[in-house]
């Protein structure tokens, strides 16, 4: 199939991959992904070769890294390319990256078991050893081929910048010149990996592999895709979750030029047209009577009131040590606080979209694909196909923040149901407008927290009891059997159940209401988005009650957690903790606050400086971040991710809130659900802890400490503790 736009797509299907040009194609047998057959072939033989490939070296001297992970702006392509190029000793300029097809047998996420997908900031962490081996193995095969060709000992051959050299004889060859011969070499059972002291790319600056294409417009996102005969579908969704179409009058819609068909599907009423504008006009002209008899009809206030009631009762115990209830009951001083967190939309730059087409023997899909195995299985079941008959082409995604990794495959299911209901053989592009994305999507769950703590006379925390109330993301998904134990969704309590502070009596409890019909999903940094806020602001409250310095108090409680302590010390040092802040203008109040949190096996501490005006408005002036994410593969990318995390977290803390009235989402676009504006973005400083540990996550860990650090700074400036997000200016007025 050809693409109408004359832009090459470097996100190949398995078919396209196997029909590549002569050269060296390499896959590896890595623990956890099964055994690979001999993985080097040439020419036409490649058409029948099916290894687990991560690397292709062409006769044109190109080095192509095959990424099993989605590039959605987080720098995955660059990170994976860096790892391979380092061990291969390739020139950075000759390296490019392609997205892998959907094939869990070859491309599974090693942390997800038998499933392929991107999420939980696992891309670098699960690929680290795999991609190092890939590069080192290919290098060894190139060296072996050169040694045979030149009749010299392999030990005398060096590789640098994509050139293989034998210094004694003066011979040299490019990777491309050796690719065919290298393809005939046996794959070595073991290879030596570089000592980190010899790294020339890892830990250094390197241009991102996707920047040029995203700058000049050649990058292929789903919205860029135009296939011959393609139809565009726009769907009228019911205003309430669980509603369905009762009657449809499409007479005006069908009269609009460009409209091809109108079909009713489980998700609503779809209009198919020759272009997006005609489809939208057609949808606007629909007259739909909705059946809300089974729809969810509660508003946000009613949901929250129910949560508050539940928080007054014991919940399921997620963690217990000592006797927290007993210690609190007998304590002389008890501090209590309650926190409310709203539903949040993902609001990625690119709303949901995908292209689906029936083929003679299966289904073909183009998508910013984040959850290959789940989506493949879902679509296969809809059409009674084996999963391998669902071909998924992984394109770039314009952000996600968890939204494209939907456990229910909602928008892909919606597109496939349109194809099925219409009976069309044409490719169908489903396009969600911003309003669809915000009103008919999935959300970070609303949560309520209640924490109480007992303090000894010396300010020590004797006991801590934390009770959480909110919907489960995992219940009802394919992950329930693994991630929900004894009724406890691990995602709901992460960041609370693993609280690192040395508290002798500690208990964490959870209520998971099952009658709330609002669809929920992971949102960037998931449970830690609310648990870090409640725990870190409450700890500052306890520090104030006991007249302790917040940093000193934390360090005392983190004595057995050196990585937490290290980032905390570094952030405090770089922020000038303990030194006076410059005074603001008359009527302004200024403060500095701190927070530290572990998520996705990375450790982040942040110090925020704020200015609070007399009218209660908050300006975040500066955020100093210290990060321990293990070895930083691309330090610039680490900094960029943390900087982006600060902006993302501040958007939620200052503005983010999805509300419902009578079951209807009230926000529809950025006018009502605003990201921060450029004038609201603070100065951000990022300091990376030098580490020899394996890389861990960075896409998400920078988010959780931001809001509590800002809230603690506000409290330092005003003496007022903010227990509801987003921040309410009325609570801070003079």
What attributes characterize this protein structure?
single chain, 734 residues, alpha+beta, Aldehyde Oxidoreductase, domain 4, 5-stranded mixed sheet, 20 helices, 24% strand
The structural class is alpha+beta
Biggest β-sheet strands, sense, barrel: 7 strands, mixed
Write down the overall mean pLDDT.
93
CATH C-level name of the largest domain: Alpha Beta
- Please name the fourth-level CATH homologous superfamily of the largest domain: Aldehyde oxidase/xanthine dehydrogenase, molybdopterin binding domain
Count of domains = 3
Number of strands: 31
Output the radius of gyration: 27 Å
The CATH architecture of the largest domain would be 2-Layer Sandwich
Helix proportion: 25-40%
Q: How are the SSEs ordered, and which strands pair?
A:
Elements lengths: L13 H5 L4 E5 L25 E6 L4 E5 L8 H13 L6 E5 L4 H4 L15 H28 L6 E4 L2 E4 L4 E4 H8 L28 H6 L14 E6 L7 E6 L1 H4 L4 E7 L2 E6 L2 H10 L1 E5 L8 H12 L4 E6 L2 H6 L3 E9 L2 E2 L7 E6 L4 E5 L4 H11 L7 E5 L15 H13 L5 E4 L2 H6 L3 E2 L2 E9 L5 E10 L9 H4 E2 L2 E2 H4 L11 E7 L16 H18 L4 H8 L4 H14 L13 E11 L2 E11 L5 E11 L6 H20 L5 E2 L2 E2 L17 E6 L17 H13 L16
Summarize the structure.
With 734 residues, the protein is an alpha+beta fold. The protein is built from 20 helices and 31 strands.
